[in-house]
Structure formats: structure tokens, C-alpha cells
Specification:
With 450 residues, the protein is of the alpha+beta class. The chain is built from 13 helices and 13 strands.
């Protein structure tokens, strides 16, 4: 009733005036009055409709019409409705912008596909991992851009519970995990995640288990075979039994060395094992390393010591000696009889450099980047003959990383190698620093080498 009272009141007033005119001046005057009123109403209506049309064409540019009466109510309600629409549109736009900003910041590639597998939107990471560009490829069928057979099968299956692990189509070294997620009414969200590091860690784990198993299998087989032989033989000559026992002891020690190195690596990698620094007297340490090299060499090599600096070091004495000891024992093991091994300590700018130089067979360039990998060997058969566990340089790498140092390897096949440990300036202590440090002896077996 709120809408009708005004037009009905106006209509009643007009009819009352028309009746008065009819009674006073006759029906012609009354009809003329009604015709004038009708013309006025029609013209006013046309004007308001024109103003309404202009406003609806450009609601953000034209102010809402100002009118009274029924048209004023209509304009007011339409303006109120449009204000609500603009507020709702603004909220939706803001939410969409926030979603796009968040999606652009996500490190995973995200691609929105319609029911026909056409690209509707993709974030910047999709260019990095799949070579897709939102502006260029919008509306394109993704199966025409990514043509790998296994991807097409995965896309056609539309199994949202399954993932596809594959190589990136633009970088074969990157491994991706793809998953489809239902999105909207008939859309799909394709998510691609870089799992290269996870796959690499998993491969390292598998290789590590395989290498440890392989390293333990040979000595266990030898020891087991000798035990069976001794158990089945009652009259074995004393000299023969002595040889069997010596071989079993050698292989038992080899297994013990491997386990010791594995425990050392585990301790170095543990977050709970904090680095405890102390002052290290490098001259005393170098003398001790030279003495251990001479004991391991047994006169087969010439061992030289070259000390060009009086500076010391700040670090964990046991760990530093373990790392440098591995380099020294490697040099002895892989240098032919009659060769020379030089242990040197010098300053290079503000850094301290401890180097071990040998005249051994040298290392081909393609092997150098992988020398610090666990169980990596240039010559597997020779490494086993020399007693190495394949973990020595891996231990060196972890010790140096904990001390902020680095390992520099220079080698020429047929001429020899130089392994240099470069300590940062904050680890170098000049003469006169408090607590010159004491040198601890090597463990009974020496340090494992690679």
C-alpha cells in the first residue's frame, strides 16, 4: 500500500477537479483538463525514462536523476541497489586480486583449466616449470602445449587421487609432481611442484644403503667363508690357520673402520652436535700429521713439511685434525713408492691455507666435483686395496662446512694433486693469541680416507 497511496491520491484529486469543471463549465472543459493532465503525465514520463536510460548506460559517470514522487522513489531504490552491487563487486575484485597475488607468490605452478582443458589462468611459476605464459597461452588447449604421452594419459584419466611424477618439459634436470584438483563447477586446477631435491635425497638414500650393503658384503663373505673352512677342517696346518686368522682380522677391521666413519658422519650431521671452538697450534698439528704420515708410509715416500706462517687456528681440534689427517693419509695411500708428499701451512691474504701436495697419479677433471660424495671412488678396486672406506673426503667436507672453510682441489693426471683447505679470516689466529692449543693424538687406526 505504501506505493499506491501517492498515485491514487493524485488521481482522486484530478478526477475531483474534472468533476467540478464539468459542473461549472460543461463536459468540454472537463475533457480538455483531463487531456492536458494526460499530456503532462506522458511528457514527464518520457523525460524520466530518458534520464533513467542515460543513468543506466553510465552509472559510474552520470549522477542518479533527482526527482520527486513515484519516480523519485524508483531512482532512490535503483541507486541503493547499484551501491550494493558496486560494494559487492569491489569485495569480489579485492578477493580475486588477493587470490591472484597469493597464487603468484606460491612457488608451485598453478594452471586453471576449463571443461575442455583450455587454459583460463596460470601463475608465473608455471612459466618456470612448464613454459606456460598466462597472456600468451590463455584459451589454448594445454594438451597442444604439453604433448608428453604420460601427461596426456594423466590428463585424460582425471583421477584426482593420483599424482604424476615426471621431468619438466623445459628443463630435464627438474622433476615435477603433478596433481589435478577439482575447481569451480566444471574447472580443474593443475598443480606442479618441484620435487627435485626430494628425489635427489631419496636417490642418495637408496645409493647409500646399496653402497653400505656392498661394502659390508665382501668382508662378511670372506670372514664367513673362513669360519666355515675352519669349522670343517680339523687338521689345518698352523701356518695356514694363521693366514686365515690374519685375513679375517683385516676384514673385521675394515668393517669396524666403515662403521666408525659412518658414526663420525652421523655425529657431524647432527643438529645437536654443536661446534666447540678452541685455539689450535698449527705448527704442532702439522708436526703430528707429518709423524703420522711417516708411520703410514714406512719409508716408502719422502715427507716434507713447509711452514710459512706462525698463525694458528680457531676451531674444533679433533675435527680439524680428522679432516687434515684424511687428506694426509689419502696422499700416502695414492702416491707410488718413491714419491714425495708435502704438508704446507701459509697465509693467503687474510685466509689460512693448509695444503697437502703429492706426486701421485693425479685425478681426471671429471672426477674432481664428485670426490666428496659418499662412497665415490675414482678407482674402486684400488681404493679397497689401500684400505679406504669411501667416506674420508665426505667427512672432510662436513668438517670444513662446520668451520666455514672450503676444499680446493688441483690435480693433473700423471703428475699429482694438491688438496688445499682454505680457512676464513675469522678462523685464523695470529701469534700471541691466548691458549695456543694442544694437539691430540690420532686414534689407534688413523683416520679413514676416501
Amino acid at each position: 500500500m505504501g506505493f499506491w497511496w501517492r498515485p491514487l491520491g493524485v488521481l482522486a484529486g484530478v478526477m475531483l477537479v474534472a468533476l467540478l469543471l464539468w459542473a461549472d463549465s460543461g463536459w468540454v472543459a472537463a475533457l480538455a483538463f483531463l487531456a492536458g493532465i494526460q499530456a503532462f503525465v506522458m511528457l514527464r514520463r518520457l523525460l524520466q525514462e530518458y534520464r533513467l536510460s542515460r543513468w543506466l548506460e553510465s552509472p559510474d559517470e552520470v549522477d542518479p536523476p533527482d526527482a520527486t514522487g513515484t519516480w523519485g522513489d524508483i531512482f532512490y531504490r535503483l541507486d541503493k541497489f547499484q551501491r550494493r552491487q558496486r560494494a559487492s563487486r569491489s569485495e569480489l575484485t579485492s578477493a580475486l586480486e588477493q587470490f591472484e597475488h597469493a597464487a603468484q607468490a606460491v612457488p608451485d605452478a598453478m594452471v586453471i583449466l576449463n571443461r575442455s582443458d583450455q587454459i583460463e589462468w596460470c601463475n608465473p611459476a608455471s612459466r618456470k616449470y612448464m613454459g606456460l605464459d598466462c597472456e600468451r597461452d590463455r584459451g589454448q588447449f594445454i594438451r597442444y602445449l604439453l604433448r608428453q604421452a604420460h601427461f596426456l594419459e594423466f590428463l585424460d584419466a582425471a583421477d584426482y587421487s593420483q599424482r604424476l611424477v615426471c621431468k619438466s618439459p623445459i628443463n630435464r634436470e627438474v622433476i615435477l609432481s603433478l596433481q589435478l584438483v577439482p575447481f569451480g563447477t566444471a574447472q580443474k586446477l593443475l598443480v606442479a611442484r618441484d620435487i627435485t631435491d626430494l628425489e635427489r635425497v631419496d636417490a642418495m638414500r637408496r645409493d647409500f644403503i646399496a653402497n653400505v650393503s656392498h661394502e659390508l658384503r665382501t668382508p662378511l663373505t670372506v670372514v664367513g667363508g673362513f669360519v666355515e673352512t675352519l669349522a670343517d677342517t680339523t687338521d689345518l696346518p698352523a701356518g695356514e690357520s694363521r693366514r686365515y686368522f690374519d685375513l679375517m682380522l683385516d676384514h673385521t677391521r675394515r668393517m669396524q673402520h666403515l662403521l666408525d666413519d659412518l658414526l663420525t658422519l652421523s655425529r657431524l650431521e647432527s643438529d645437536e652436535h654443536t661446534l666447540k671452538d678452541a685455539s689450535i697450534n698449527v705448527h704442532e698439528l702439522a708436526e703430528a700429521l707429518k709423524s703420522d704420515a711417516e708411520s703410514l708410509s714406512r719409508g716408502r715416500h719422502t715427507i716434507r713439511l713447509q711452514l710459512d706462517s706462525r698463525a694458528g687456528l680457531k676451531g674444533n681440534l679433533q675435527e680439524v685434525r680428522s679432516a687434515l689427517g684424511n687428506l694426509v693419509s689419502n696422499a700416502v695411500r695414492y702416491t707410488p713408492d718413491g714419491g714425495e708428499i708435502t704438508l704446507a701451512w701459509r697465509e693467503q691474504g687474510e685466509a689460512g691455507v693448509f695444503s697437502v701436495t703429492d706426486t701421485g697419479e693425479g685425478i681426471a677433471p671429471e672426477h674432481i666435483p664428485r670426490l666428496t660424495e659418499r662412497f665415490y671412488r675414482v678407482d674402486r678396486s684400488r681404493s679397497r686395496e689401500t684400505g679406504g672406506t669411501g667416506l674420508g673426503l665426505a667427512i672432510v667436507k662436513h668438517v670444513l662446512t662446520r668451520h666455514g672453510a672450503r676444499l680446493d682441489i688441483q690435480s693433473t693426471p700423471g703428475k699429482g694433486s694438491t688438496f688445499s683447505v682454505v680457512f676464513p679470516a675469522h678462523r685464523v689466529q695470529q701469534p700471541g693469541a691466548p691458549d695456543g692449543g694442544k694437539v691430540i693424538p690420532f686414534p689407534e687406526r688413523g683416520q679413514a680416507a676416501g
